[in-house]
Structures are given as C-alpha cells and as structure tokens.
C-alpha cells in the first residue's frame, strides 16, 4: 500500500520510480498462489497445467478448474490432470512468465500483457485468432464501490475529482486494474469535454490528486478499502465490486454514465507447452471457457460472458451501460502503453502534477 505522499517522495528521489508507484513492503505480502517449484508433466503420465492470471480472477478459476477437470476426464477417461494457479497484478504476472515462470496458459486482463509474451516468442503471434471472440471469453467493466449510504454522494466520474473524496485504486503503472481505472477516467473526460485534451488532463489530474492509496493489484485494493476501511471510493472491476458487496454487504456499487470495458484475453504459452507436451490440454482448457457451463459460471462471478444468449439471460444482473473499449478511443495497446504508461508518459506527467496539489 502506498500513499500519495510516499509516492511523491519516491518520484523525487528515484526519478524512474513512477513505474513502481505502488510497491512497498506491505504490498508485497499480497496473497498469491505462485507455485514454489517449476511445473512439469507428471512422472505418472498425467498432465499438470499452470494458469498464470490476474489477481481478482482467482475465485473464478478455482471453481472453473474443477468443472474443467470433470469435462477433461470425461473426454479422456484414463487421463490424470492437475491444474495449478498463480495470481497477482496482471502485468507483473506477464513479466514473471517472460522471465521464466513456467505457465501453460496466460489468462490476463489486458491485451498488452499477452502481446508482451508474443513479442518474446512465448505465445504465438496470432494468439487472438486461436480462440473465439478474439480470445476474449468474457469481459468486465470499471465501476465504483462506495460506503453504505454513499455518504459522499458519488454518482459519476466528475464526483471523484471533488476535493475531499478519497480514492483507492490499483497502481496504473503495474496493474491492468489500475490502467483500466485511469483509462476509464480519461475516456470519460474526452467524452465529456468533446475531446478537449487540456480539460481532460486537468480533470484527470484532479482525480489523481484525490487518490489516497495505490495498491499493487486489484485484490490488494479491495482489502485496503473493504477490510482496512481506507478511502471513500474504490475504483475496480464490476465483478470484483459485486464479490465485495456479496461478502461484506456494507457497500454500494455505482455505475458511471460512461466507462471502459475490460477485456480478459487468454493464450497458450506454447514455448512451455510444446516442451512439456501439454499443448493440447492447454488448448482444451482455454476452449472450454467458451462452453455454456463455463459461461454460466462466469456470470456467478459477475463476469460478462461473450455468449450473447447467456448474457441476455442474466440482464437483471448486468445493468445496461454506455461503455467503450480502450482500442476504440486510444488506439492499439502498444500505442496506449507508449503514450499513457511509459516512463514520462501522460499518466506520469499527471501523477507528478497531482502530487503538488
């Protein structure tokens, strides 16, 4: 957990530290399930798969792994299969895979994290064509979580720029959750101010000046807001907000008037699976995410399924929203990362200016 004052000090003394804005000793204790050994095909002839994913997906994949194993064993009666999970900030997870974590599949929350692995020749360059819907089995969107009774009267993004409103978000420099939060705010500004960049930057700067805590991942931000009682507003994914509301019951979800869609792309890490002999099982694992059973399971965790019929069945659960995908507003992910989240990019510029307020 990192307060803005701490971030300011780091920015001044380390120069490049905005790339690590949210990293502190307390944050590094965030729960993950990273294996302590390299995963390999089992000696007994069974299959071990490692799914490396973003942090707030852990509950969904815990249940999905069980239904997939039943499906897999029904199709392969003599087989043995074990599935392990590793969770953390999406971009940190992707970097871990690039640096050697032996993932069979990567299930992230933004396309740039898979593209990082494709650029490193760990994932096929045509990964978006390997699975339906551009390899996006389900999506989420960015919403606000507020205290019961909404004491700050938050209704939309502009309320988050109001003085005295304390915000908790995941770090946009290291997590997909945080990047979507920033892009949601910035996209709202462009939409509200008729693409006036100057007014949009001022709005985004005011919002960032209200950030009380940057966390190292979406689940860590949840803990800070819901369990530690810090902040007036948590900006997070719709699915995470609903999980928190169901668990704690003393919060309310606010759906902004215009917000960003979060894609959840998946890919086989073929550099690993080809060497282990698990490529077919890994493909089957990801393909089954599009099955009716898995799509229905996604709705239980408030993930919006890519199957339009199943989404329509649960329309009471998923309010209609005016949304945009990042690529529609900001260009491809390479451009987004370069323009907004690179060292000295727009986010860095606004964050430094916000610290001065």
UniProtKB/TrEMBL annotation:
Signal peptide: 1-24
Transmembrane segments: none
InterPro entries: Thiosulph/SO4-bd (IPR005669)
Keyword Signal among UniProt keywords: yes
Record-level GO BP terms: sulfate transmembrane transport
Record bears the keyword Ion transport: no
Pfam families for this protein: SBP_bac_11
GO cellular component terms listed in the entry, alphabetical order: periplasmic space
Gene3D superfamilies: Periplasmic binding protein-like II (3.40.190.10)
Superkingdom of the organism of origin: Bacteria
Subcellular localization, as worded in the UniProt entry: Periplasm
Key words, A-Z: Periplasm, Signal, Transport
GO molecular function, one term: molecular carrier activity
PANTHER family: SULFATE-BINDING PROTEIN
Annotated family: Belongs to the prokaryotic sulfate-binding protein family.
Protein name (record): Sulfate ABC transporter substrate-binding protein
Source organism of this protein record: Moraxella pluranimalium
């Amino acid at each position: 957990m990192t307060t803005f004052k701490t971030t300011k000090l780091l920015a001044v003394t380390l120069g490049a530290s905005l790339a690590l804005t949210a990293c502190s000793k307390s944050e590094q204790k965030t729960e993950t399930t990273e294996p302590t050994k390299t995963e390999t095909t089992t000696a007994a002839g069974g299959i071990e798969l490692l799914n490396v994913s973003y942090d707030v997906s852990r509950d969904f994949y815990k249940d999905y792994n069980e239904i997939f194993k039943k499906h897999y064993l029904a199709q392969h009666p003599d087989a043995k299969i074990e599935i392990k999970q590793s969770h953390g900030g999406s971009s940190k997870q992707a970097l871990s895979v690039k640096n050697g974590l032996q993932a069979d599949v990567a299930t992230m929350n933004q396309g740039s994290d898979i593209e990082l692995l494709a650029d490193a020749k760990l994932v096929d360059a045509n990964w978006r064509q390997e699975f339906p819907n551009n390899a996006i089995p389900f999506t989420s969107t960015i919403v606000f979580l507020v205290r019961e009774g909404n004491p700050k009267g938050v209704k939309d993004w502009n309320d988050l720029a109001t003085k005295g409103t304390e915000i908790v978000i995941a770090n946009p420099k290291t997590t997909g959750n945080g990047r979507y939060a920033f892009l949601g705010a910035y996209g709202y500004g462009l939409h509200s101010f008729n693409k006036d960049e100057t007014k949009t930057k001022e709005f985004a700067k005011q919002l960032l000046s209200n950030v009380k805590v940057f966390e190292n991942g979406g689940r860590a931000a949840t803990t800070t807001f819901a369990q530690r009682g810090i902040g007036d507003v948590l900006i997070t994914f719709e699915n995470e907000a609903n999980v928190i509301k169901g668990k704690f019951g003393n919060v309310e979800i606010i759906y902004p008037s215009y917000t960003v869609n979060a894609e959840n792309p998946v890919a086989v890490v073929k550099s690993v699976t080809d060497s282990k002999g698990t490529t077919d099982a890994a493909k089957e694992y990801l393909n089954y995410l599009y099955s009716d059973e898995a799509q229905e399971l996604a709705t239980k965790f408030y993930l919006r399924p890519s199957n339009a019929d199943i989404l329509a069945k649960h329309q009471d659960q998923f309010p209609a929203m005016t949304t945009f995908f990042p690529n529609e507003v900001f260009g491809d992910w390479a451009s987004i990362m370069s323009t907004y989240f690179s060292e000295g990019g727009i986010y860095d510029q606004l964050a430094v200016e916000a610290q001065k307020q």
